[in-house]
Amino acid sequence: xxxxxxxxxxxxxxxxLVKQLPGDAEIIREEPGSGDEWRxxxxxxxxxxxxxxxxxxxxxxxxLKFWQLENVGFEQYKDVKYDGKVANVGDMSxxxxxxxxxxxxxxxxxGVHLMVRNQVNIEWLGEAVESQLSILGEKRVIILGSGAxxxxxxxxxxxxxxxxxxxxKKDPDADIHSYEExxxxxxxxxxxVNTLPGNLDKYVGKEFFDSIKEGALYSSIGRGNTTDExxxxxALESGKLIGAVLDVTESEPLPQDSxxxxxxxxxxTQHTGAAHKMRDRDKVAKFVDNVTKxxxxxxxxxxxxxxxxx
Length: 310
Known about the structure:
Blueprint lengths: L1 E5 L4 H10 L5 E3 L7 H7 L4 E4 L15 E3 L16 E3 L6 H16 L2 H9 L19 E5 L3 H13 L2 E5 L11 H7 L5 E4 L11 H6 L4 E5 L8 H10 L2 E6 L19 E3 L10 H17 L15
Parallel strand pairs: 1-2, 1-3, 3-4, 4-5, 6-7, 6-8, 8-9, 9-10, 10-11
């Protein structure tokens, strides 16, 4: 059995991964180069762990039976032709992502972003900012999506006392199942949290922001391309939105000339939603668990379909 590892891991976690994989396997753990080096590395491979560039995957060898992805999202691979089993990392980053976006939302409502600016400027305003503060627990919320991240966000916001609806086309447990139904609900919503996958390009656009309640807060921990940034900026600058909390943007890194940098009603967390110092530890545990389940013919909870892109 041959296992190729193309994963972004610190060396000691890469060592730990190799140690926990089957001892009789041939393991290629150095990041392969392009062209002939990659083809040689993948030749007769049975298992692939990681996210190689798309142009390295044409063609995928017939021997490859299991592919363990390194992230939740994988829209870059939706056109890759592969018939074997594929797994992503499932709910591995759900807690971190939920904590990041809720921290930004809570910080916005409680004016933390304003107080940080005042601190930098050595300016004491105190309760003069009272009119800009509100209570998170009183908010009516729509979460776009109903996956693991959305569910974790919902749990946290419910604990604050928020009223929550979730959207999904096919999830019977979701509250809203169509775009038209979503638009009809937006005039009564205080907060929207986007957790959508990248296959829904510009799902949140002009029609969405035209329908939303004036003074609502928009936040996104989904894929950056799911929000039409031009429409978002129009809604922010016109005052239709009270503000935005964004972990993701259409282009990353965010261009220096983007207006989002300077808008005082925007919090940017720079796509750190899933990040924490022990993430590589969690990746190794997820990789080993899914590879073991594959080898033992057990059900892999994190199995996905590449063609769906999420």
